[in-house]
Amino acid sequence: MSVEEVLVRLVNDLGAFALIALGYRAVFKHFAAAWARSVVLGIMFGMGALWAILNSAEVRPGVFVDARCVMIALAGPFGGPVSTVLAAALASLYRLWLGGAGAYTGTANIIVTAIIGIVSAHALGIERNVLSRRHLAWLGLASSAGFLTIFALPSEIAWPIFKATFIPVLIANALGVLLLGQFLGRERRSLDRQHELEVEAFVDPLTKLPNRRMLERVVAPMIQRTQDGHGALSVLVIDIDHFKQVNDRYGHDAGDVVLQQVAQIVRRNIRSQDAVARFGGEELIVAMPSTEAAAASAMADRIREIIARETGRNLGVTVSIGVAADRGKQATFKRLFKAADEALYFAKQNGRNQIALAAG
After folding, report:
1. Which in 64, 205, 292, 314 has the greatest CB count within 10 A?
2. Does Transferase show up as a keyword for this record (predicted)?
3. Phi, psi (5° rounding) for residue 162?
């Protein structure tokens, strides 16, 4: 096969890789769990490598030349170690299944490139949105190092193949990683920015807790389950006692620190199925699905005691907590919040640093 034919095959590979790369954003959109994204991205990059092997140029019986390593190299910075291992495993198994004189050297090429991709992603800091053309160009050139495994073949086979195809493969790998890497990098930066905007919209910047808007979203299915007869829903309204005095005496910076500490204590001491949010000012809300009033009151009192012990050492900070629980068709978040807020007012009026359970 001529050098021109090899070049045509390599260019076709890069075109197919571009189509596969278009699915990168869709993976992040449809798979929220990190492990699921890693698996799907590994399959995606692996399928790109498989396509390259299917479309490869057979330069000697059983010896194939293609741009598979572009996909394997990019799996490291844009998919992570799990994706790289999965993509390399898919490509290696297929190459071994094809067999031929170059089966083992071709598989070694894939493995070497996978290691280069993982190491480069870590060493050069090109993971996520820390990208540069220089880094990608370096990775593209480095990904061709695996081609040297061809010298495991007898020299009378390896040398002619190397001299005829190494430069085209080097160019294809360098350009492929550079161009596709820039595209994937833009997609990743866009995704990261979108995530930042979502965080800004739904997370309180001071306490890092969800805000009121996010809490209402999270509580909606809890309310639905409660209305469907799956136990009671309890709500805690937590308010820092004499918070204005803390700000006046020690300054707003100290007040911010106290609010952050209280928020983290509450977060640490609720269950994984519970939801906590900053509702405004120094007020925090906890929603506890499938929880009766007695259990919610016990949890509230435990939180109150921990805050008084851990935060009150230096500033004497305490909290008051209102508790309300409801079940059945009449349960709504508005109704629960109003009842818990009224119970909180009762706790404040009767000395603070205590919990109060809403009537009924």
Report:
1. 64
2. yes
3. -60, -50
